[in-house]
Every structure is written in structure tokens, then in C-alpha cells.
Amino acid sequence: MPCASIIVPAHNAADRLEPTLRSLCAQSRPDLEIIVVDDGSTDGTADLAESLGDLRIRVLRQRTRGVSGARNSGIAAARGSYIGFCDADDLWSPTKLAEHVLQFETRPTVGLSYAGYELLDAQGTPTGMKTTPPLRGTGAARVFRRNPVGNGSTAMFRRTALRGLAFRPPQETERDWWFDETFRQCETIECWLRFALTTDWEIAGVPGVLSRCRAPANTSAARTDKHLAAWERMVGKLAALDRHFFGRHFRAARAYQYRDLGRLALANRDRSMAATLLRSALAASPSPLLEEPRATLSSCFGSLRLTLTGSSARPDTSPQTRGRSA
Length: 326
What we know:
Strand content: 15-25%
Number of strands: 9
Radius of gyration: 19 Å
Order of helices and strands: EHEHEHEEHEEHEHHEHHHHH
Largest sheet: 9 strands, mixed
Distance between the termini: 31 Å
Number of helices: 12
């Protein structure tokens, strides 16, 4: 029985999946299974995964259900005591699995573990942005406002902790959901925050920058609007759990959403969108500037330099810095 299961949701990812799988196969702790969930691909994604010849790679094929549906299918099939995720165009460092497993084994109250990551642009080139989030004190307020857990390639769950997240919506007759499949964006922060609000498990980080994650290529106004609409729908859904909590933290959390979307636009050198989003962040709440001044000012100066010269400044990489919005 493998110690851990790493779930790789993949839709038409044949052109970028191989480096991801090789990074998982190269983990310093080798007792793992890699579950590639081929989510309705038409480009040979499943064949590419099987061609690598590593017996630890399992391929599941399903009709297209979206990234949440792929993760849910992977969780249902997983055999490991710990369950992690890696998107099909991201990379894990060789020691990532071992670091998370060590934390789980030495801290039995931790149910969700995360680590820092490096942000790449859509072509896979390093942007200079890295996250080194706080390792302790990650309660619901910090998850909502700043999301130190990160995106879908940074987190690992203790298998027993996932039991408290499972639900079956009325339209589903056979499958449990852990990630809400009605969300095509913001599905990870919805999951992390629901976990923080509804379970007693601890959420904690391990030191180091242990993933390399690509920013989405599209930072257009339409995509940004869809992201913000999904984020607000997530707030509306979870507000029933604690309306006072959401009333207290909403403005600051929304400002961080704008700021982090602005950082993505900056990573993709979209100067107009970066400037618009960063202005919106400062208008929504002063919290990002007051609580994370170096990261926020670095983003603002980077946007200004990109506007004036066409060259973005190297972003701040302090422990406050964040990258891809989840």
C-alpha cells in the first residue's frame, strides 16, 4: 500500500504533462502512487502518462467533469494515507512529499499541509515571484484573507481529515464530492476555507519553496470578472456557516483577491490589467498595504515600471509575497 497518493487532473495536457510526472516520479520518498485523471482528453494525454512506464502511475479515464471532478475521482480511487495534488503543468521539488509526510507523522493534529511555491509565467519561465507563507496560525481568517495554502499543486491532506469534507449534492447519486464541482474557478480556496470552517484539524505549512506553478496565460478582463464572480459565489455559499465571520473579513479578503490577480497580470506583462486590479485592491481596503506593505508596494512599483518602460521590476520575494490566486 503506498504511503501517499498524488492526484494529477489532466485535460488535453499531452504537450506539458511529462515534466510534471517525472518530477513526481523523482520524489525522494518513493512509496507513492500517482493517479492521473484524464478528464475527457482528446489529445493522447492518457497514452502519454502510460508510456512513461513507471508502475506507480495509474491512469483513470472519465468524461469531462472539470478540475474539481477530476480531483474528486482521484480522491475516491486513492489508497495512500496522505493525498496531495499537482496540476498537469506544475512541478514538485524532489523533497516535497517527504517534507509533508514528516509533518503529518510528527504532528498528528495537522490535517492540511502546504508549502511555498515559485510562480512561472504561462510559458514556464520563472517570474521571480515566490511564496514563503507563514507556517503556523493558519486559521479560517488567514485562509480567507490571504490563502497561504495556495493553489492546487501545493496542498496535501491527511486521508482521515478528508472524511469531514465529503458531501453528496442532490444531483449526485453515486459519487462523493470533496471539491465542489459547480466551481470552475476558486474551487481550491472554497475547499481550503470550508475545511477551516467546518473541521477541528490544524492547517500548517512546511518550510521551503517546494512547487513550481504556472500562472494562467489568460489575464483578460473577462477571465478576471469570472474569477471574481466565482469568489463572490463562494462567499455566498459559505456565509451560511458564519455570517459574522464573513462580514468581518470580507472587504480585506476582496482587496487581497484584487491584488493577487494584479500580480498574475504583472507576471504575464499585462500592464493595463495589472494597473486596474492593483488600483481596485487599494480602493477595496487598505489591509494589503498595511499588513503586507513590501509585497503590495513591490507589485505597485512593478506595474508602474511596466507601464513606463515595458520592463517589469523583479517582485519582492519576502515571506509576505504571494503568487497565483486560488
